[in-house]
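Quiz preparation item.
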């Protein structure tokens, strides 16, 4: 794996690549200076077939975005067999569960066998600090992040529901209370954070159920 700090890479190239990532695009359009702050806490990684980005059980605060390529999400079942849970495609975020829940990684992420090279962008989420700490990351940027996080998690859970409509957890995410405070406020940020944590917890529970039942229960993401 070849790592380089985002601030040391070709800035025009980095900005061009990140135009495809909603979080970075929205921050850059609204608060260009904040975008540059994020770049100071970011890295770009190039990986080859089979290389691992992080392993199950590792503990860090990095959040990742797949810019190009395809990745596999891998878990171990109760018999310690390695299972391919699903795939990550360009534009998707991953590593968010550990970041949101403050716990070790619940899965391993590797470059898919049919992918010669993957390009990944990583953000050190220690920059976020406490939820109400805006010394480095502004309220607007945190709102953008959590809005995108909630949307991404709900989408993943909806995919699980569509693929496994008879699963005991199908539809549980639709029961979670959605609070709609005034946009752009600290109250909205707190509400979004609560929703993201609840959705992330439910997604981890889904993944754990796949570990128990093995390959027959695994999600196959439609192409």
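Solution:
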């Amino acid at each position: 794996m070849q790592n380089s700090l985002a601030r040391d890479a070709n800035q025009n190239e980095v900005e061009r690549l990140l135009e495809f990532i909603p979080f970075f695009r929205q921050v850059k359009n609204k608060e260009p200076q904040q975008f540059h702050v994020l770049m100071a806490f970011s890295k770009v990684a190039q990986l080859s077939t089979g290389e691992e980005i992080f392993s199950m059980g590792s503990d860090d605060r990095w959040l990742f975005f797949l810019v190009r390529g395809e990745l596999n999400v891998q878990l171990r079942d109760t018999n310690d067999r390695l299972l391919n849970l699903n795939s990550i495609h360009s534009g998707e975020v991953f590593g968010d569960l550990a970041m949101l829940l403050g716990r070790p990684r619940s899965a391993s992420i590797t470059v898919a066998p049919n992918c010669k090279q993957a390009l990944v962008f990583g953000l050190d989420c220690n920059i976020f600090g406490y939820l109400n700490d805006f010394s480095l990351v502004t309220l607007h940027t945190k709102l953008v992040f959590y809005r995108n996080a909630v949307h991404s998690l709900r989408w993943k859970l909806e995919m699980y529901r569509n693929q496994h409509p008879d699963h005991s957890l199908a539809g549980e995410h639709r029961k979670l209370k959605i609070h709609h405070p005034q946009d752009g406020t600290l109250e909205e940020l707190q509400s979004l954070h609560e929703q993201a944590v609840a959705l992330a917890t439910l997604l981890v529970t889904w993944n754990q159920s796949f570990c128990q039942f093995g390959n027959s229960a695994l999600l196959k993401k439609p192409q």
